[in-house]
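Quick one: structure tokens for this chain, please?
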Amino acid sequence: MANAFFSDLLTTISERGRTLLRRAGSSDAGQDTDGLVQLCNALLSGRGEASGTAMARDVLDLYQELDATQRHAFFEALVRDFGPDREKLAQAVEKWRAQPDDEDASSLHFASEPRRQELIRRLNRAPGGTGDLVSMRADLLGMMKGHNDLAALDRDVVHLLSSWFNRGFLVLRRIDWSTPANILEKIIRYEAVHEISDWDDLRRRIDPVDRRCYAFFHPALVDEPLIFVEVALTETIPGAIAPLLAVDRQHLPIEKARTAVFYSISNTQRGLGGISFGSFLIKQVVEELRRETPKLDTFVTLSPVPGFMQWLKQDKDVPLSDDDREILKRLDDPKWFEHPEITAQLRGVLEPLAAYYFLKARTPKGRMIDSVARFHLGNGARLERINWLGDLSPKGMRESAGIMVNYLYRLDDIEKNHEAYANDGEVVASSAVKKLIKGEGRRLLDMRLS
């Protein structure tokens, strides 16, 4: 109710502001990019709250009417024409050089702020402004490739969005069958790991006693989940996704559950890319589950390996012998996993390669290749197990030859694991994973790693 009241108040202010603008004869700044830039300058120069709120709404509305080319031109204008006030910045620099105290340092900080940051703040005051800015940033991300000049604008947008979407503003809500239908529909639409086929499929994932779903929400985006996680409560650590999603599976009585399995984590807002909520989500969900079901003692993921096959096909440094390459040609048969002899041969090659992929393979910049691995290891998890043929779906076979992994969140070790990964790039892994790469039956990998 408080959010609705605040939203209605902003709308009222905005409408009154539009009336003021019409009286002043300044409501039509034009439909093209130049007109939009002029309106942005007017928004920055104005001081009236009502007219400013209305003008901000007009800027956002006019932006929606631009085509892709015009939007790109608008972003370039924000980079070119809405940077710091150079005269004020030069004065602040000279003053700090002459007398470098804390007050002058503060003045230098504020003088160096680009004008576009204040513009974005004022746009955020419009009714629905936060959501529109998130969508605008999604457009910006789509135009970044090959346009390094837009990076400065993106940094400014991310700086502000990171403040507005920090953990203190996020609200954790459980998603169940009583959740409003418009939110449930978005869970179906946004699911990015294991597609939800229909409403019955959704109900199987959120309604049974041994299933959970949680999402983070923000007060400015009331009915928009920002990120959500699907959880299965099981007796032991699973190695395959199909039994968890089976239509005819037997529900586990809650008193028998000992393991919480995070099997799908989906970010929903592309415009919030690079602003991480996942670590907070997992940690808070763990606390919720422990409070609700104290007998739970194991918290793991069942995760995809989305970059494995692409690495295997494109990276020239993949450690393969000629015999290995011949065996890998068997992957061209879409039904290879139905043949036990072929499956055994491929397993002997692919499992050690998967261990190498996680423990040794890196990008030219020294980062782990797999984005899911970076996420969980950066959050303090341990690479616990590599699961052969864990995902036989077309997507799973295409991306990872069916391989899935478990990341274990051992609460006493999370901080230590996080520090090892963040400071030294160390991948904390179980002995079972390390054995795969030590060359038991894999002479070539031993040679490459010695």
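Residues 2-164 form a domain with the Butyryl-CoA Dehydrogenase, subunit A; domain 3 fold (CATH 1.20.140.90).
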